[in-house]
Write a structure and sequence with these properties.
Length: 150
């Protein structure tokens, strides 16, 4: 098996910054995700994730700091989370870090609705999962946070 290399893709107006670091277990998607051709963007990411799951770090942090994403992106994000939920290395932990505008943070019903697809995907996870949500201001500064274990 070849050694997994880190994956870094620059952000554009319509695609997110992608920074997948095998050595640290930090997996970051940030910015906007409204690609015209979602498979072209997300297939290499999912391929990388599927390889990572074979030999993950003890703690994997998936940071979804997407200010906006379209329906096609949400389908791919669910595939990524589902693949990570399949980590089977003993004592492994997957922590999902999800960022919201602060004005949405205090409306727990909206957050539950937004997160229900993610929670559905990870409800049958093999790995221990934690969910950390952040409320951010317009500049991305974290103003409030909360941790939920699933």
């Amino acid at each position: 098996m070849k050694e997994l290399k880190n994956l870094f893709i620059e952000q554009t107006e319509k695609t997110p910054l992608v920074d997948l670091n095998f050595l640290s277990g930090e997996l970051i998607l940030s910015g906007k995700s409204i690609p015209i051709n979602a498979p072209r963007i997300f297939e290499p990411i999912l391929d990388w994730i599927n390889e990572y799951v074979r030999n993950p770090k003890q703690t994997t942090n998936l940071r979804l700091n997407l200010e906006y994403f379209n329906t096609a992106s949400s389908i791919w994000l669910a595939k990524i989370v589902k693949a990570l939920a399949g980590i089977s290395k003993p004592d492994s932990v997957l922590i999902l870090h999800i960022y919201f505008p602060i004005e949405d943070f205090d409306d727990i019903d909206d957050i539950k609705d937004d997160l229900s697809p993610v929670i559905d995907v990870i409800s049958s996870a093999q790995v221990s999962v934690g969910l950390k949500i952040y409320g951010t201001d317009d500049s991305g500064k974290i103003l409030k946070e909360s941790m939920i274990f699933i």
